[in-house]
């Protein structure tokens, strides 16, 4: 296929999950046609594969359990999510977090020293975003000589079956303003997060392709990191994305199955 | 005292309340030493006095009752507060608010039509800042063709006897970010609010002095209005305020009593 010569160098793929592998819904989700087979074909080809998601309401174990039940041959080691990336960052910098996250995410931080906190980690805490909990996080930050706020994403809101809900980004802004600080965002589109995913993929950016449905977080973020990036026309894709003022994917594909077809033809 | 020549023209004082007259707290609050006597000396001197507060956790009636119980000789007419100013604005523009405010403030809005809301009024709701209540306000705003968010102040935090607490400004920022809108602020440091307080004081800005503990809301806001402004080293004052990159008070004083001592010496 014309215009895909650059894909000959590919050794690994980063895949967004929601909107690429499945569409989320009231019943927990519906696989996108051809995506489970596409994942099997990637693996059979010898290409490396890593899932790159901003999910922070479940541990990777529970997230993978859901994907496997939908027919996806994936393992926990193949998931790059904000919480484990935050754990690496915490260890690298000797940071001991106070956690304001969803209860179901807490096990991801089991091995992290949380005594005498010197930073705050903020996730999509949902019902845990109480007045008391937000004050506690604020008081810890404002009491630090150099406050460190690590936010697992910066989304504005998301849709649930009973309506739109405030996402972690709104609470991040509240704490940023109250403390006059800038949060460090872990998760797409942060460069550091894509670098983590590449490290787990074991492939340099020029030999990796990101495939996602979000023109800014997936495509723009990956390209900022030196990767090629494809946008699928599934999930949250909208035709207006093709006129985005700042981000232009290296190619469009109708879905993951078509992306894999074309990439494997180049090898 | 050197450098206070400008105080000779003073005819009226605007006083912030929390952090200047008393330190607030779950226990009701504790008067700051010398402040009740300072208020009496202001009145005895013939200077006019108006309290200019962003207090939104009580009606003015209850607020004044609390201050009088602490020994302050003040009346309801001497209090300029955001809720009555917001009510004027709502009436002028035919707005019907959804209220996310402290329970004790609700009577201030008794005469306002709140059916089928076409704006959100945000106050320091404290324990009412639940995840559910913030989502409700967000859902109403995001569902409006032209979202109108009126915030009773934009303070970052305030000091209570058991520690610092997030103020309304932090929640305002969360909603602004989630909805991609700008709130309209009623209360300090809005110019219009200071102008209301000056009108109630009955003194032009060049003959008024603002005394507060907040370098931005009190000092910066009053100076923007053409007033002189002093920062007290009580309440939420922090030594780092003295290096603020944008706002410089006309003078620092240790507390209200010292401010009144010096001002009365100039007359």
TrEMBL record, chains A, B:
SUPFAM superfamilies tied to this protein: HAD-like
Keywords in alphabetical order: Cytoplasm, Hydrolase, Magnesium, Metal-binding, Nucleus
Keyword Calcium: no
Cofactor(s) required for function per UniProt: Mg(2+)
UniProt entry tagged with the keyword Cell cycle: no
Signal peptide: none
GO cellular component, one term: cytosol
CDD domains: HAD_PPase
Enzyme class: hydrolase
GO MF, one annotated term: phosphatase activity
EC numbers: 3.6.1.1
Compartments in which it is found: Cytoplasm; Nucleus
Main subcellular location of this protein, as a coarse class: cytoplasm
Reactions mediated catalytically: diphosphate + H2O = 2 phosphate + H(+)
Function: Phosphatase that hydrolyzes imidodiphosphate, 3-phosphohistidine and 6-phospholysine. Has broad substrate specificity and can also hydrolyze inorganic diphosphate, but with lower efficiency.
Family affiliation: Belongs to the HAD-like hydrolase superfamily.
Name of the protein in its database record: Phospholysine phosphohistidine inorganic pyrophosphate phosphatase
Species in which this protein is naturally found: Corvus moneduloides (New Caledonian crow)
Gene expressing this chain: LHPP
């Amino acid at each position: 296929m014309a215009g895909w010569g650059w894909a000959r160098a590919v050794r690994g793929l980063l895949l967004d999950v929601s909107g690429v592998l499945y569409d989320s819904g009231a019943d927990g989700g519906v696989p996108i046609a051809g995506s489970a087979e596409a994942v099997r074909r990637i693996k059979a080809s010898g290409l490396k594969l890593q899932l790159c998601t901003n999910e922070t309401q479940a541990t990777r174990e529970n997230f993978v359990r859901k994907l496997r039940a939908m027919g996806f041959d994936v393992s926990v080691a193949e998931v790059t999510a904000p919480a484990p990336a935050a754990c690496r960052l915490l260890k690298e910098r000797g940071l001991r977090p106070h956690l304001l996250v969803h209860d179901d995410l807490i096990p991801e931080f089991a091995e992290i020293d949380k005594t005498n906190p010197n930073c705050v980690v903020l996730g999509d805490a949902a019902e845990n975003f109480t007045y008391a909990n937000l004050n506690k996080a604020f008081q810890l930050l404002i009491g630090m000589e150099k406050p460190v706020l690590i936010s697992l994403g910066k989304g504005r809101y998301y849709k649930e079956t009973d309506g739109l809900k405030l996402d972690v980004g709104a609470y991040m802004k509240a704490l940023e303003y109250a403390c006059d600080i800038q949060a460090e965002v872990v998760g797409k589109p942060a460069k550091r997060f894509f670098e983590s995913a590449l490290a787990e993929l074991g492939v340099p950016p020029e030999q990796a392709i990101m495939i996602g449905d979000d023109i800014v977080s997936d495509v723009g973020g990956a390209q900022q990191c030196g990767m090629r990036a494809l946008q699928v026309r599934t999930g949250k894709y909208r035709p207006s994305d093709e006129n985005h003022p700042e981000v232009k994917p290296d190619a469009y594909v109708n879905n993951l199955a078509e992306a894999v077809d074309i990439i494997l033809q180049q090898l």
